[in-house]
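Discrete fold record:
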Amino acid sequence: MIGPPGYIRGAVSRGEPSFSDFQMQHLLPPNDRPGPPQILASDLMCKSTQSSQNYSQNFPRLEAHPGDHVALQYQENGHVTLLPNTPQKKTSGMIYIYGTERPRHDEKFLDVHKTWNGGSEGLNNRGKLLKTWSFDDGQCYQVNQGKVSLLRQERHPKAFVEPQGSDLWCQIDVRIPLTSRGTLTIYWVWDFSTPPSPDIPNGKAEFYTSCLDIKLAGEPRNYNVSFVKGQDINFAGIETQLVGGF
């Protein structure tokens, strides 16, 4: 990874005494919705604090070129290394990355998710599915005493580096379309829904989203990818995602 990092819309410092995960967490359907959990046609893709392209000097947007690969990083928070603690969950879920150059401040979740496809454009001709991947990237971990964490700490040792600390964050590596210009808005969607079971016959919908923007500058970069082994894992992409991965 090279160049300065960028952030999601409306990012706030985790170092603030008043910080809470709920300040940036967007859960669909919300826990306080009456009746069976379900996504409504009116549900928004972005949290209210992320409905516009709001950034700060400390938390700027990412800058890149068309054709560049970008790493979207996130913490697993035990949803990978401590998954057995939630036996109703069979996997850590899937990540969907959508891109558009024509975002809407009132973008509806269902207008995008499973509607925009990986072809030239989505069904409403505004955006496309850029990538899908498992929430578990195969190497990330939170430092704890779980079997998965201990195994990955051994396989993927790393130095303490801020802001990850001793943990190794998960990532999904996405290539910006060569044809993109101006600003590319990214919708990050995590499907962590619970499948049907005897205890939960109808399953339970559970989605989390984040919204961010990438300022595109300069000429497109159309290059072939070759992975350099032995990099500092704190700043390296993931080979299986970069070489032929969708």
